[in-house]
């Protein structure tokens, strides 16, 4: 597919949690908790006013305008600020410093005086009903010529436990939001830019790692299509796929539109009927339970509602998503009926009631109340209507594999007003000049390759490893780079695969182990055994003792001599080639407590001596 | 720094010299919606003193404005329209720390006029800092047959999570209930589950920021209002609607003061109160000050200052007959403030001295329960 030809325009917004000591507006730690550990609960209502509802039709709006009740879990690591029971503290300057560092890495211009704003968020994920956010820097550039528009520093939202229950451990963790301009034109380019930005973020060493700590939103449109924002792509590897599938969706929807227009398809809200009575004795459990069932005729839509527009997604799924906003479970449409307990006979009856022709598609929707059914009916009508025009502007959420589903209309202008409880922060020349730019991870990897002779793919892995700070510390303390790199990348991975809890091994323990190796107290070969013991709770010192006393060079020499004298015949037969097999014998004898290099050196020398002596 | 609002909605501060004047923005008149009220419902008065019960945000400019007009309040809190119809009056728009006894008097008169007009109840919106003082002041100044309900919000009305809506709806429910006294109605817990109804003379703000900051001291609350059901439950010791006949006694003696004793306090502090008509001391424990202060206290009383002893413990009763210092204070002429809260004792002292010229009778009044401020029995523990 020629994406440039199709006029693909994409931009990304990256949200990354920062690894600061305290939260953005209180002094709680930025630790995530297990919800089972919550120490308290409370509940609140959040109140939305009309203008805060987005552009959803009036019926749906009525349905949703009820005050929503939200429940929150508190912990011994959260405080009254998260509970919205205390004014916020000053803006966390450690988090601001990280943002300024990243801003400098993208050659951006800092805002002279930073003002914190309240951005309205009434889905319950913020106890206050707003998210605090501040614009930190503008106008950055990317190596591929693209532009970064803004960097904002925000507070992370509370984590949804389920339904309307939220966990407050995550609320208030500093979150950096980086927005690019819509400057990308192929799915691969979007992926590369996202990867590059992720690398820059990690280069600071101040961002959180692991699932959920980084989320990217992608803005996409194609020629003739509409701007769509896809929220919460967590897996970087999926970004290109998400873009491809969205392009496919928009293309298919445009084709459907053209087909509909050719058929002179039309929809009229009046062409719906209350068919509740028709399904009195239905075998469909959903319809049987329903208080009110409506059937809406979509004239000329037959075959198109059931047509696939993305893997596993149809126009019908899009219509269904809209109806779900009202709280209904979904819809049925005649492109997929009879099925789900609805018989062909029932479909015929509905068709008759609506005077539907073969080219028409009928949508059935069931509500647990008149109000809910009416709301869903309006939503179905609206979505079907926009299929005639093309593609609605939407915020969508990602599904597994990279397809997407409707979430809500694109937000209008952000509803923001000043956070008067937080003082503005001045970024003067001195502060900006004092911001140190860290070495980029990709440059670091090159340096590891050149300076330490670490293989290219190891060097790259090391630079992006969470253990990078440990590696750099080891180098500073005089440990051989290859030793540290091998332990971090290879030994640890093997131990982890064995099921060893390597998280229990502290950086200090690693360093003690390496220093012991460097001093000859322990052989390199003994490291896995040592780390196994340390991971199960032992100190490095006791682990060394338990693994047997170290063997001195003299002792090794005498062991080697003994073995050579015992196997003189074998040595005579094999000559220098006896080295390999003998090496195994000696290593078994010293049980890994001597460096293989030392053994091989002594063995080689003694073997040569022995061979020289025997040669006439 | 000049603050600039960007199209994205963000504000930024920039050096003024970087800004160029283009034009003044057009001020668009805010659309005024009139809300029709249900004339079949009881009429309540809302008198505002500056506490924000409702506000409106203009997202275009980011400005937040307080709403005082009945229509605006009903637009912001539509639930109120189900409870009653309202008549609103904006008396003052001040921060509650700037309240004065003079304003209490104006407020008492305004409330009195509304009740005389025949409203079912009165709601006073008030900043929370000194709400308890004003509630106590009105308790003494007005004999009321109907509820006078003080209400405010601990978390600003411009946030979707504000306690303003629930507090206002509960306050309105109390204002048309069977109650007949001055009360404070605010959140009872951190949840949006129910409000507590506190007697105006026994209530205190006990937390700087929490929603449930207001608590009844020395007695349980008079009742509760469930939310969102709006069900009002009153205890049998709450004063019933119609028990008292409407009367206004708005006089106050403003030359009264209050001082909290602390270890090592200099007797010079007391000299500052020379010429005052009344002084409330928040003493330690059972109601003590150091021995070195007793001559000073004696001098004040001799020169005509009425001195009332309360306790900084807040909970419990003053008793100056247990220890020597206490007995010396009584000898000097100090009045035991029983279990009155120090700030309530101060307000009461202003009112008593303003209305009772006879010092002996005034003394007696200070120890008599007038509006539930001074209980004969300590029935309730901590
Ligand atoms: Zn906190």
- Gap between N and C termini of chain B, in Å? 51 Å
Overall pLDDT of chain B: 93
Q: Could you say what the CATH topology of the largest domain in chain B is called?
A: Rossmann fold
What percentage of residues of chain B falls in helices of 4 or more residues?
10-25%
Could you write a compact summary of the structure shown?
The complex is a heterodimer of chains A (616) and B (382). With 616 residues, chain A is an alpha+beta fold. In chain A, 39% of the residues lie in helices and 21% in strands.
What characteristics describe this protein?
heterodimer; A: 616 residues; alpha+beta; Gyrase A, domain 2; 4 domains; 20 helices; 23 strands; B: alpha/beta; Rossmann fold; four-stranded parallel sheet; 24% helix; 22% strand; globular; binds zinc ion
Give the topology.
The complex is a heterodimer of chains A (616) and B (382).
Chain A: E1 9-17, E2 40-46, H1 58-64, E3 68-74, H2 93-105, E4 109-110, E5 113-114, E6 116-120, E7 130-141, E8 147-155, E9 159-162, E10 165-167, E11 174-180, H3 187-203, E12 214-221, E13 228-233, H4 239-262, E14 266-274, H5 285-289, E15 292-299, E16 308-310, E17 313-314, H6 315-324, E18 331-333, H7 344-354, E19 361-367, H8 370-389, E20 394-398, E21 404-409, E22 416-418, E23 425-426, H9 429-433, H10 441-452, H11 456-463, H12 468-476, H13 481-498, H14 507-518, H15 527-535, H16 540-546, H17 553-566, H18 568-574, H19 579-590, H20 596-614
Parallel strand pairs in A: 3-10, 13-20
Antiparallel strand pairs in A: 1-11, 1-12, 2-3, 4-7, 5-23, 6-7, 6-22, 7-8, 8-11, 9-10, 12-13, 14-15, 15-19, 16-17, 18-19, 20-21
Chain B: E1 2-5, E2 11-14, E3 43-48, E4 55-58, E5 63-66, H1 70-76, E6 85-90, H2 101-117, E7 121-125, H3 131-141, E8 142-143, E9 148-151, H4 164-175, E10 182-187, E11 194-199, E12 203-205, E13 214-216, E14 223-226, E15 232-234, E16 247-248, E17 256-260, H5 268-271, E18 278-283, H6 294-302, E19 306-311, H7 324-332, E20 335-336, H8 342-355, H9 359-366
Parallel strand pairs in B: 3-6, 3-7, 7-9, 9-10, 17-18, 18-19, 19-20
Antiparallel strand pairs in B: 1-2, 4-5, 8-16, 10-11, 11-14, 12-13, 14-15
Helix pairs in contact in B: 2-3, 3-8, 6-7, 8-9
The structure holds zinc ion.
